[in-house]
Fold this sequence. Notes:
Blueprint: E1 3-6, E2 20-23, E3 26-32, E4 34-35, E5 38-39, H1 56-60, E6 63-67, E7 74-78, H2 94-127, H3 135-142
Antiparallel strand pairs: 1-3, 2-3, 4-5, 6-7
The structure holds iron/sulfur cluster (SF4).
Iron/sulfur cluster (SF4) binds at residues 32, 39, 41-42, 48, 50, 54, 58.
Amino acid sequence: MLVDWLxxxxxxxxxxxxxxxxxxVGRRLMVLAQHGGACRWLDDALRCRVYAARPYDCRLxxxxxxxxxxxxSASLSLLSLTACEDTRDGRVSAAELAEDDHARFVELAEYxxxxxxxxxxxxxxxxxGHRARSAHEFHEFSGRLGRPER
Length: 150
Ligand code: SF4
């Protein structure tokens, strides 16, 4: 599985409320699958095994992009938790990072709309006395796991 589902005892559901999905096992938050405290897709040589299809957050790492208040410009910085020697890498394009950052937020907004639709249907099903649906059915509903690699 590409993802895991965290419950309320594992993650603060309030900070990600628009991403919380109502499933048959309760309210859950979808995250990248982990193994031994690290991303499941990291191989023994510390390389990403799904590099071409990695999420936008991974594409943007180790950069942080902060939009200005008026939304017209943005500032780009390195996250403090990385030891990256940024002066040795001249291949990073700020324009490409900004494009990925924009795409990340478009994708997140689409996901929130999808979750909202699913949760509305889940509440409707509950009112009608139908069984709640599973994570597998959510994946089918979203069609996201079948997306082509970028
Ligand atoms: S780049 Fe992302 S998907 Fe790939 S191993 Fe790292 S955290 Fe996992």
